[in-house]
Amino acid sequence: MADDFLMRIHSPEFRSMSERVLRVTALTSRLNVLPFEDDTAKAALFGQILGRPLPDGVTIYPPFYTDHGLNLDLSERVFVNQGCTFLDYAGIRIGKRTMIAPKATFITVGHPVDTADRKVWLTGGPIDIGENVWIGAGATILPGVTIGADAVVAAGAVVTDDVPAQSLVTGSKAVVRRRW
């Protein structure tokens, strides 16, 4: 996991983040029960969630989940299918013409592996997705990852490292990396 981001749990910054998460959870809950054709109400809620209007040509099919919203930067003509999750506190940038399949997950923060630090710190890093990328169904993009332009992330892939431009990445096998 990237460590570009470090926050002490129960700090003023953490409390502020937690308050924002509660507000955004309420907004996404309202968004996700609106009639599909109520574009005006959806646009208003997305404006509150993201802190600005959606860029031109962005399509997002609910249900849609984010924990913060203000750090989710969607470029023009991005397509987000149903059931995607964006945990964006450390920042997520998605380039033009990127397509995101159902149930993809983007996570920018987490906890350290070491038990003593796990309840004390949040760690992580921003996610940067290039232009014209395709993220497959159920893919998970972890903190600090950059995905280059024109790349494809296969369905179910768990992306822990940067992805070069114009490449295909696959795989989700968990392996033991360390024991304690």
Topology:
Layout (H helix, E strand, L loop, with lengths): L4 E4 L3 H20 L7 H12 L8 E2 L3 E3 L5 E3 L4 E2 L3 E4 L4 E3 L4 E2 L4 E3 L1 E2 L4 H4 L2 E4 L2 E3 L4 E2 L4 E2 L4 E2 L4 E2 L4 E2 L8 E2 L11
Which strand-content bin applies to the residues?
25-35%
CATH superfamily: Hexapeptide repeat proteins
Mind describing the biggest β-sheet?
6 strands, parallel
Query: What's the overall geometry?
Result: globular
Number of domains: 1
Low-pLDDT segments, ≥5 res: none
Structural classification? alpha/beta
Just name the CATH architecture. 3 Solenoid
Q: Oligomeric status of the shown chains?
A: single chain
List the total number of helices: 3
Distance between the termini: 18 Å
Instruction: Enter the CATH topology name.
Output: UDP N-Acetylglucosamine Acyltransferase, domain 1
Number of strands: 18
Task: Specify Rg, calculated over alpha carbons.
Answer: 16 Å
What number is the mean pLDDT?
Answer: 93
Q: Encode the helix/strand succession as letters.
A: EHHEEEEEEEEEHEEEEEEEE
Task: Give the strand line-up of the largest sheet.
Answer: 2-5-8-13-16-18
Helix content estimate: 10-25%
Pfam families: Hexapep (PF00132)
InterPro entries: Hexapep (IPR001451), Hexapep_transf_CS (IPR018357), Hexapeptide_acetyltransf (IPR051159), Trimer_LpxA-like_sf (IPR011004)
Protein name: Acetyltransferase (Isoleucine patch superfamily)
Keywords: Acyltransferase, Repeat, Transferase
